[in-house]
Amino acid sequence: MASTYLTYSYDQLKTFCEDCFGSFGFTKEQSTIITDVLLLSDLYGIESHGMQRLARYHKGIEKGLIKVAAEPEIVFETPVSAVIEGHDGMGQLIAHKAMTTAIEKAKTSGIAIVTVRNSNHFGIAGYYAKMACDAGFIGMAMTNSEAIMVPTFGRLAMLGSNPIAIAMPAEPYDFFFDASTTVVTRGKLEIYNKLGKPLPEGWALNANGKGSTDAKDVLANIVAKKGGGIMPLGGETEQSGSHKGYGYGMFCEIFCSILSMGLTSNHTHIGGKGGTCHGFIVIDPKIFGDVGDIKEHLSTFLQELRESPKSEGATRIYTHGEKEIIAKADRLENGIAVNINTVAEMFDMCQYVGLDPVKYLGDVKFENAASSSYK
Amino acid sequence: MASTYLTYSYDQLKTFCEDCFGSFGFTKEQSTIITDVLLLSDLYGIESHGMQRLARYHKGIEKGLIKVAAEPEIVFETPVSAVIEGHDGMGQLIAHKAMTTAIEKAKTSGIAIVTVRNSNHFGIAGYYAKMACDAGFIGMAMTNSEAIMVPTFGRLAMLGSNPIAIAMPAEPYDFFFDASTTVVTRGKLEIYNKLGKPLPEGWALNANGKGSTDAKDVLANIVAKKGGGIMPLGGETEQSGSHKGYGYGMFCEIFCSILSMGLTSNHTHIGGKGGTCHGFIVIDPKIFGDVGDIKEHLSTFLQELRESPKSEGATRIYTHGEKEIIAKADRLENGIAVNINTVAEMFDMCQYVGLDPVKYLGDVKFENAASSSYK
At the top level of CATH, which class does the domain B71-180+240-320 belong to? Predict the structure, then answer.
C-alpha cells in the first residue's frame, strides 16, 4: 500500500474544511470552530486526529450518530461546576461550549469543572486545555471514547483511549501535555493499517487478550466487539505498569462519564448511539499566589529539564508542548502533509456532498491510493 | 542475602511504631497519625512504604532534615485553595493537616486544592486520597520527591517518583488508585537490593542513561547524583510511551512544587534540606448531581470491569483498591510480614533511641540478616 503524502497549505485545508462542514449543515461560526480543532491537530503533527478524521465525522452525521442541529444544554450547575447534556451533537461544538463555560466559572470561582454526556468524538483533547491556557489558566480536558483499552488481565476493551490533556502558561512556550492513557491511540493503529505496516510489540491485543502486531485484525475485532484492543500505558503486565495506565484511564472515565452520569466507554457506540463523555477542568493560578511568579517558576523548571544531561546518543530533551510548537511553525511555513489515502477519502466525500474537490485540493491522481470506503 | 520474613500483628506494630515516634519527640496524637499512615501501607501490601521506611524517618530526624517541632502554616488561601509552608516538618503531619484543610474547604465550596512546600516524605499518597474518600468526596493526593525519574532522552533524574493517588466512594469497595508515575518506585528497587535480586528489564537506567538491572548501582548513583534512575511509566522510548509517564510526572510536579512555589524534585534533598512538596484535591460529587446516583454509576462500571472476559490464562480482573482491601483483611487476620533486614534495622533503631526491641518485636536471631546501617 502507498505511503505517499500530498502537501497543502494551512489556508487551503482551512477553506476546504470549513466548506465541508458548511455543506454538512453547520453554520459558518460552527464550521470555523470545528475546523480550528481539526487543523490544530494537523499543525501539531497529530496526523491521526486531523484531516484523517474528516470522513469519519461525515459518516457519523450520515448515520445519525452526530446530530448537526443539536444544542448542548446545561442540566446541572453550581458556581464551580456544570453538567452538560450534548444531545448527540458535534463533539467539537459541545466541548468548545463546555470549556468556555468552565473558563467563565473559573474567572469568578478560581476553579471549575464541567462534565459532558451524550457528545461525540471531539478531536484532540489538548485543543480545549489550550483554550484555558491561552486565557492564562491551567486547563485540563479529557474524553472517553468507543471502548479500545483492555484492562489488565482482560481480553475485552472496556475503556476508551481516554486521553488526559493539561496545559499551563510558561515561557518561551506553554506546557502542553496531551496523551491517551493507552500505549497509543486507535488513530495510530489506523495509520499503520493504511501504511500496511506491522504494529510494534507491546501495543495491541488480539481477541484472546494476547499480544498482536496485526493492525487490520485488531481494528476489525474492535469494530465487531470480538475482543482485543489496545494495551494501557505500561503494557500487558503489572511488572511494566499496565495497572497504572488502566488507572489513568479510570481517572479519565471518572471526570467524563461518571461525574456526568453519562455512558462509560464500554456502553458508548452501541446501536447507532455515540454517547461520548468529556471532562474539563480550569484552575486560575492566582488562587495560589502571584501568577507571574508561578509562571516563571514553571518556565525555569522546563528550561532545567531541556538543559539537563542527555542519554548516550540523544541530543535533545523535550518538554511537553515543544514538539507541537516546532511542528506548527514548520507546517505553517511548509504546508501540511496529508496521506494520499486520506486525500482519496476527502475527494470521495466531496463528490458525495456535492463539492468540487479539484477546486480545493488540486487535480490528484490516485493510482497508488487504496480504494476509498466511499466508492 | 536472606529473604526471611517475620510476622507481627497489626497491634504489635502499632504499639511499637507509636512508641518509636513518641521517643523521637512527637506527641501521642502526632505519633498516632504517623503510625496510621505507615501501617495502612503495610496493611495494603505496599511493603516499600511501611515499616521499611521507619529507620529512614528516624535518620531524617537525626540529620535535621525532618524537624520534629515544626508547625505547618497556611501562607496563602482562598475559599477554594490554600498554600501550606511545611517548615521542614514531618511529612505525614503536614499532609494530614493539608488534606484536612482541603476537605473542610470542599465542604463549603464543592472543590478545594491545597498545595504544600518544604515538607518531607509523607508515606503513601493514597492515605490522604482515602481521607477525602472516607468523608464522601473524591480525593487526590500527590507528592514530588528526591529526583529519581529520568526524563525521556535524559540521563539525570530530574523528577521524583511523583505518585498520583485518587480515591472515590464506591460499593462494595471504594475506587482507590495510588501509583508512582515512574515504572516502579525507589522502594521497589530497595527491596530488590535487600533481596540481592537483579531488576527486571525496563525499570532503571545507569549513569549513562542506558537500561540497567543492577539495583545497588542504580541506587548508589541516585544518592550520589551521578546520573541514571528510574524510567517514567512507559519505559525508555517514545514508542512505548515514555513521554507519557514523564508527562504524568509533570502533572504531579505542577500540583506540588509549581503551585506551592516550592522546590521542584531536582532541587530537593540537596545540602541537608528536604523540601518535598505535595498537592491535595478534594471534590464533592454533589456539585455534579445526586451523590447516590453517581456512586452507584461508578460501582456498576467497576463491577462490569471485574466481570468482563479474562485474557487467556488469567482468572481475575481487578479494579483499583480491590487488592488493597484483600491484603488488609488478610494482614489484620494473619499478621504483617516484615523482611528480616527491616526488623534488624528496627532493632538497631530501638537500641539507638533507648527502647527495648524485644518487648515489642520478640527475641529475634539475626544470623541471616544483612548488617544494619546502625551498627
Answer: alpha beta
Asked whether B51 and B346 are in contact (CB, 8 A), the reply is: yes
A1 or B233, higher pLDDT: B233
**By C-alpha distance, which of A192, A266, A188 is closest to A227?**
A266
> From the CA of A295, how many Å to the nearest CA of chain B?
8
Cis peptide bond upstream of B200, omega within 30: no
Q: How far is B5 from chain A (nearest CA, A)?
A: 22
Which chain B residues in 44-83 lie under 8 Å from chain A, judged by CB atoms?
A: 76, 78-81, 83
Q: What is the pLDDT of residues B170-225, one digit of tens each?
A: 999 999 999 999 999 988 898 899 889 999 999 999 999 999 999 999 999 988 88
Which residues, listed in sequence order, are joined to residue B175 by a DSSP beta bridge? B168
List the alpha helices (DSSP H) in A44-122.
54-62, 91-109
β-strands A138-143, A73-78: how paired?
Answer: unpaired
Interface ipTM: 0.96
Interchain CB contact of A343 with B (< 8 Å): no
Grid cell, residue A46, equals: 497529530
In the predicted model, what is the mean pLDDT of residues B319-333? 98
CATH number 3.30.1370.60 is the correct assignment for the domain at A73-183+231-288: yes
Alpha helices (runs of H) in A110-198, residue ranges in sequence order = 125-134, 186-195
Q: How confident is the model at residue B371 (pLDDT cuts 50, 70, 90)?
A: low
Cβ B285 vs Cβ B295: under 8 Å = yes
Checking A348-354 for CB contacts under 8 A at 24+ apart, the result is A348/A55, A348/A372, A348/A373, A348/A374, A348/A375, A349/A20, A349/A54, A349/A55, A349/A58, A349/A374, A350/A20, A352/A58, A353/A20, A353/A23, A353/A24, A353/A58, A354/A23
* Min Cα separation B184/chain A (Å): 8
Cell numbers at A205, concatenated: 491485543
| pLDDT on residue A365 | 86
CB burial of residue A207 (10 Å; 0-12, 13-18, 19+): buried
Q: Do B298 and A254 touch (CB under 8 A)?
A: yes
For B80-93, write each residue's pLDDT tens digit.
Answer: 999 999 999 999 99
Query: Where do the domains of chain B lie?
Result: 5-62+335-361, 71-180+240-320, 184-230
Q: Is B2 on the interface with A (CB under 8 A)?
A: no
Which of B251, B288, B318 has its CB closest to that of A166?
B251
Of A156, A247, A264, the CB nearest to B301: A264
Q: Are A87 and A57 in contact (CB under 8 A)?
A: no
Q: Does domain A5-62+335-361 have CATH number 1.20.1530.20?
A: no
The reply to whether residue B312 touches residue A179, judged by beta carbons under 8 angstroms, is no
Average pLDDT over residues B324-344: 95
Nearest CB partner across the interface for A289, out of B76, B289, B309: B76
Does A291 contact B at CB distance below 8 Å? no
Instruction: Determine the average pLDDT of the residues in B321-330.
Output: 98
Residue of B209, B250, B261 lying closest to A311 (CB–CB): B209
pLDDT at A47: 85
Place of cell 491522481: A365
Residue-averaged pLDDT of chain A: 95
Q: Is residue A369 pLDDT above 70, yes or no?
A: no
Contact yes or no for A309 and B154 at CB 8 A: yes
**Chain A residues whose beta carbon lies within 8 Å of the beta carbon of residue B74:** none
Model confidence at A367, pLDDT cuts 50, 70, 90, reads confident
Across A173-185, average pLDDT:
97
Which CATH class, in words, describes the domain spanning B184-230? alpha beta
